[in-house]
Amino acid sequence: MKKHSDKTFSDITWSDLEAWAGSKIVSRGMSYKKERAVQGLSLTPEGSLLAWVRGTRNYVTRVSFEKGRLLSVCSCPYHLACKHAVAVVLEYLDHLQADTDVPLAEEDDERIVLLEDETLAFDDDEDDMDDDEYIETDEPDIDSSLEKKSKKELRKMLKGIIKDYPEIKKEMGFAPASPKKKGCPALIKSVTKAMVVTSSEQGWRNYWKHTGHTPDYSPVRVGLQRLLDEGCADDVVRLGEKLFVKGTEQVGQSHDEGETADEIAATMPIIFKALAECSLSDTDKLERAVDFGLRDEYGLCRGLDEFLRIRFAKKSWSELADRLLSRLKDMRPKGKGDSFFRHYERNNLSDEAIRALENAGREEEALAVCFHEAEATGSFERLVKRLRKAGRTAEAEEWIRKGVKATQDKLPGIAASLKKELLDIRRRKKDWLFAAALLADEFFESPSLKDFEELRKACEKSKVWPGVRAACLKFLETGEHPGGRPDWPLPETGFAISRPARWRKPPFTDVLIDIAIEEKNIDAVVHWYNIHKKEKDKWPEAHLDDAVADAIAQAYPDKAITIWKNLAEGLMAQTNVSSYSEAVKYLKKVRKKLEDISKASEWAVYLKDLTETNKRKTRLVQMLNALSGKPIISK
Is the peptide bond before 507 cis (omega within 30 degrees of 0)? Predict the structure, then answer.
């Protein structure tokens, strides 16, 4: 037995551990240490820590301290700076604190041998990894990893991939395509059964409990690809229709965040490849593909865009266009009123008809459809974009004004998009005065720092910023709109004067604060912030409070410190780890500012009070200890 007195390890702080492994890993390492998961702790001759750590299975972990840096290696899947390594460090620090002996490991210790043996050391079993551990790792360097593999290991990996995904065998050139057959009834039956079984499962996910189920469509993909390789493209297309219908129903009934839809979407490229190879005429192929897209409610049609990039003859596109135009003629709007969704399906169908006409070389007819549909369904944006593309800018402006007038009350989103088109036209013409007038309209309708800055840039180009700035600030303070006044330097846009939403009333203190911060007018920041905080029924505004504190910290350090303390204490009261982490960010700002103004002793007292007040919150206390900068073990 040998007592080891290692000053490098004994000086480690909580902050050092978190900088090395991350706060979440440190927390899990603490749990492993408390559960007595560390067994057989030893010291290697060169001073590294060596131990078994019990997880899903026993893992070998080695930790060293070299040139002031913690380094570790572990036989778990996480490999570096893992929770097992954190647990080993904490176990060793306990021995140092208690002044107990730590035995020396023999040179031929099996654990050292195991870590040096690349073929045995790193287990592929990922059961012991938590979701967050995956999140905190960097993206692996694939090239570097492959270069480290032997030929034998690479062959083994490749055989495994081909076994799991036989559909890539042909693509990788390992085997010639199977001879064409007239039919594969047994395989078709097998694929159909797999599709029926899988599509009957419900996808669900409970993200709080990390539980759930996602239907696995890989057997369906493998079967469909085999059918395609066997020359049964027509059967794949027929099965694809069934897959799409049943998959759409399944996604509609699933309760996840798109995992089930992703499984189905990953299968659809095979269907579109089969569609390209099947016995249908090119026109029928195009119509079938377009129909898939028109019925797609959940983004299932992966591979459709690639299919539509295939070079089909203009004649096929022209025939498709005629079919779609006939369907468009017979289509009637759904529902009543002028809602966006009333014409949603018609707009999608007309989009496809226009694309077909353009691919057929019938551009004038495509534009004629745009004109007709703009009047019928309010699809003014599409018409304006095509007029601009055709160089017919004057007509585009005319239709922008018609569109804004028709949509500004019931479909304001379309009206706003049309105004942006006009703004882009005038910017390209370098008509900065009119562009500024459009931006001013937007600012007065929905005031924000972003719109204020955009307006400033346009006004500076037309040399009218001082007068516009003064009018904008007055509007933010009083709500008085400058339009129509003799001293207003911008021209009329021809659009109705927009007003802010009813729930927004002057003074617009949040925007005034943002502008004052941007212009570095510190006294104005404090003035408007004080008024802002007197308003009742306000939502929590941590971002605004923090921005104000950052802006005034140099001139008004005490006020900034108070803001940060309030933010931190509010978060600590929420009693959850993520809130504690946010609180620490503000506490670090408090510490730095107090140190800057020579009040480090005040920080020490404040931190001590926080620690005492929250002593029952173990994880928070750990974070507060990390802020102290003191070693984990007392000396």
Answer: yes
Burial class of 203 by CB neighbour count within 10 A (0 to 12, 13 to 18, 19+): buried
How far apart CA 21 and CA 89 sit, in angstroms, is: 12
Record the tokens describing residue 1, joined without a space. Answer: 């037995």
Please answer whether residues 626 and 611 qualify as being in contact, where contact means their C-beta atoms are separated by less than 8 angstroms: no
Confidence of residue 196 (pLDDT cuts 50, 70, 90): very high
Place of tokens 């270069």: 147
Spatial contact of 495 and 404, defined as CB atoms under 8 Å apart: yes
Residue 241 near residue 229, CB atoms below 8 Å: no
Is-above-0.85 flag for pTM? Answer: no
Report d(CA 437, CA 45) in Å as an integer. 77
The answer to whether residue 162 scores a pLDDT higher than 80 is no
Q: Residue 2 pLDDT > 70, yes or no? A: no
Measured CA to CA, the distance from residue 1 to residue 517 in angstroms comes to 64
Cα distances from 412 to residues 345, 418, 419, 522, in angstroms, run 20, 10, 11, 37
Tokens of 118: 């690349």
Residue in the block written with tokens 């402006």: 397
Q: How far apart are CA 548 and CA 126, in angstroms?
A: 45
**32, 83 Cβ separation under 8 angstroms:** yes
User: What number is the average pLDDT over the span 101-115?
Assistant: 85
pLDDT over 70 (residue 420) = yes
Helix (H), strand (E) at residue 500: none
509, 515, 517, 521: CA torsion to nearest 10: -100
What does the alpha-carbon distance between residue 526 and residue 556 come to, in Å, rounded to a whole number? 9
Q: pLDDT (tens digit, 9 = 90+) per residue, 268-323?
A: 999 999 999 999 999 999 999 999 999 999 999 999 999 999 999 999 999 999 99
How confident is the prediction for the chain on average, in pLDDT? 87
Query: Tokens representing 367?
Result: 């534009």
Yes or no: say if 152 and 211 are a contact pair by the CB < 8 Å rule. no
**One-letter amino acid for residue 593 of the chain:** K
State the sign of the Cα–Cα–Cα–Cα dihedral 546, 548, 552, 556: negative
Pull the structure tokens for residue 193: 């059964």
Torsions phi, psi for 58 (to 5 deg): -80, 130
Which of the pair, 348 or 164, is modelled with greater confidence? 348
DSSP string, 415-473: HHHHHHHHHHHHHHTT-HHHHHHHHHHHHHHS--HHHHHHHHHHHHHTT-HHHHHHHHH
Least-confidence region, from 169-178, 180-189, 582-591? 169-178
